[in-house]
Amino acid sequence: MISSFHPPVRTLMGPGPSDVHPRILSALGRPTIGHLDPAFIQMMDEVKELLQYAFQTKNPLTLPISAPGSAGMEACFVNLIEPGDKVVVCVNGVFGIRMLENVTRTGGVAVRVDDEWGKPVDPAKLAAALEANPDTKIMAFVHAETSTGVCSDAATLCALGRKHDCLVIMDTVTGLGGVPVLVDEWGADAVYSGSQKCLSCTPGLSPVTFSERAVEVIRNRKTPVQSWFLDMNLVMGYWGEGAKRAYHHTAPINALYGLHESLVMLQEEGLSAAFARHRVMHEKLYAGLTELGIRFVVDEEYRLPQLNAVWIPEGVDDAVARTRLLNEFNLEIGAGLGAYAGKVWRIGLMGYSAKQENIDLCLKALSAVIAQ
Ligand code: PLP
Q1: Ligand 1 neighbours by CB, cut-off 6 Å
Q2: pTM for this one?
Q3: Would 4 be classed as within a structural domain?
Q4: Which CATH number characterizes residue 297's domain?
């Protein structure tokens, strides 16, 4: 007979999920109540307010989509694109490619602007594409590319989008809580993230925020949003303003307790302190890895502190090494994605994982594995 599942206790230093804080795990186990219970609705309002803080926005339409980051991504694309709309997509890694997929599947006309993997989005190339395509409705880019560990200059890219009168879609699944995300100051219109990265919550929720401009566009669409579940016109009925909420779907109640707790913790720590902690831990990891002779993929200026992409040392077998890390040290680090498969490791320092004891374990484990 199959009995209860008890997972091994791992240290999660991959590209997400990150280690979940015990406070969040304990919040998940609190009694389930109804998704229209007044107490739950009050908690939903707090989640919205806490997300506004995390995103640094006053956007009323700020909420967690009841599904992982990929659903937040789809929510932004399906709500803003109507068939035939032109969308300029910046691609400098796997998640930019996924954006392209979303554009074509939604009936949009994609204009692809490529940058080399491991490099940030080049504002000059984007500017040229926007000038060559004055009928562009939307510009999309990945702020924190998890496949390469690169942080792009979101302020400059958003400003270019605004200058050309585009709506700006920004992926900050890996950015939120780890590096500054200034939605209002930058002028991004549709932004999505994930619960399992620097927020250190369990996977499966995707915080999103839409500007008033974006909401206007969504409300005045000529065609219905192709996804019923992600249609923000309908989702707003459940997550919208005021105490009166209509059933849309059964919210993942306990998962939202977890997100609430993780956001309370972020508020307690404060955004600047959280960013500083990620930076300090990254510097310590960088020093230790350099001592082991391990080189970073990304130039210092563009490195994400929470996602450290490094070249796998010569002669070391990727799969064998990662299996040993898992089996002998209960340590998970990430494999390379796409063009980086077999060449790169991705070492996460996200949220609760960004701490000294994780760095000590990682350096000890890697040095043992590499030595053999
Ligand atoms: N975008 C980026 C930049 C990501 O790193 C990820 C996940 O790693 C996603 C989107 C998709 O999120 P999820 O795996 O939660 O669906």
Answers
A1: 15-16, 68-70, 73, 95, 142, 146, 171, 173-174, 194, 203
A2: 0.98
A3: no
A4: 3.90.1150.10
